[in-house]
Design a protein that fits this description.
With about 100 residues, the protein is mainly α. The protein has three helices and no strands. The protein has two domains: about 55 residues, no CATH class; about 40 residues. The N and C termini lie far apart (about 105 Å).
């Protein structure tokens, strides 16, 4: 009984490998024009960008949280500074130009 199963398994694996080879050949014939068009149409810039993205070391969760917090704090502080300068200049121009 074991011998029959081994023979059947070998036959199945041979037929599966033949099917896989024929599928690969079929896909290669279909994909060759697509790949050729992609090489001609897609600019090198995008290809290089994707290659560069693969080389990036992305921050972990803790670093992301810290960097996001720093950006939020910086944005709030800068907006307060701009608001105070705007308020001050508003009062100065009202006194000087409008003489109120």
């Amino acid at each position: 009984m074991k011998l029959t199963r081994n023979k059947t398994t070998k036959n199945n694996s041979l037929s599966n490998s033949k099917i896989m080879v024929s599928i690969k050949k079929f896909l290669n014939t279909i994909l060759k024009p697509v790949i050729w068009l992609g090489n001609k149409i897609v600019p090198k810039y995008f290809k290089n960008s994707f290659k560069e993205l693969k080389l990036v070391t992305w921050p972990n969760r803790k670093e992301s949280r810290q960097l996001t917090s720093a950006v939020i704090v910086f944005a709030v502080v800068l907006s307060l500074i701009v608001a105070l300068i705007d308020l001050g200049l508003d009062k100065v121009f009202k006194k000087v130009i409008l003489k109120q």
